[in-house]
Amino acid sequence: MGKSLKTKVLVISAVNFTEGGPLTILRDCLASASHYLPSDWKIVALVHDKGLVNAARVKLISVPNAKSSWIKRLYYEWVVFRKISKKLKPDLWFSLHDITPRVISRRQVVYCHNPSPFYKLSLREAIFEPKFLIFNLFYKYLYGVFINRNHWVVVQQDWLRDAFKKLFGSLPIIVAYPSVNITKSSEVVAQSERPVIFFYPALPRVFKNFEVIGEAARVLAERGVSGFEIRITISPNENRYSKWLYSEYGRVPNLHFIGRQDRLGVSRNYQAASTLLFPSKLETWGLPISEAKAYKKRILVADLPYGKETVGNYQNVTFFEPTNAVMLADLIQEITESKLQQLGNIASEPSEPFAANWANLWPKMIEGL
């Protein structure tokens, strides 16, 4: 049977999201759609694995083969999804992963979250992470294919909107902040007074800039500074980059490679730590910054546009040059010796079109349908 005249259909495509921040975005997106969309909307989600998500009102369709290779990914986006759209007859097709699919729908919206085309990659970084080099060189072309089919192009920050405008000219771009729901563990972990713990939760990606932390720890060791501990969530043998990091900094005093952490492990480390370190050179948001704010932790973050926008209005923050290890070492030493005076950050909202959260974004996406 065809759909009722009163029923509208939303298709959310997220077949490439299986872990980390992207999976969090998918879960938040589905939960918010269930909560905020009117009852006459039917919600269908194309996902890699039904077991990854659970949301009321949402019909889940597993598409496990779409991310097995880039050729298959594009085949699904531009061929298979068109066939699916003919069956589902969507009023709105919302693609959560960058590429604009070739579908039949009354309206299309694409969510662009991969900032790799806007990063200046060094030769060393390219050698450590060749896949990132490919993203860096070619992703802007994938962004551009069919992009003008979209009613909205959604990005997470104002600096990304400016970058897209420089790349593609005039587009209907909306800045939409992610709705970050931090679930704290009920387990109580006492914050350590000595050593003072600094925490950096990140995967071993070249732009995450772990080396500035390693160099800062080395500077502090040369100064004879003690009474602190830096925890980074990588293991020695995850990839070329992590192997190099461990060979270079694995024996530096007070720097600990604690490996990947589950949610409970991350929560325990936030509670035990005094300070989040976040030297990343490239982010569309920077989820640990929001997490650290929820835990009311001190933050040392790279002095880059994404950092100031994600931090927002927050007193307990200091910015540093992301390649200046001596500056970072100075800040770590001042915190360890209880001498740091933080100036905080004040941020203004982006200009319109802007959505502060999912609750504000959905009405803009379905307006007029």
UniProtKB/TrEMBL annotation:
Keywords: Transferase
InterPro entries for this protein: Glyco_trans_1
Domain Glycosyl transferase family residues, every copy: 189-339
Pfam assignment, any one: Glycos_transf_1
Keyword Repeat among UniProt keywords: no
GO terms classed as biological process: lipopolysaccharide biosynthetic process
Protein name, entry field: Glycosyl transferases group 1
Organism lineage string: unclassified sequences, metagenomes, ecological metagenomes
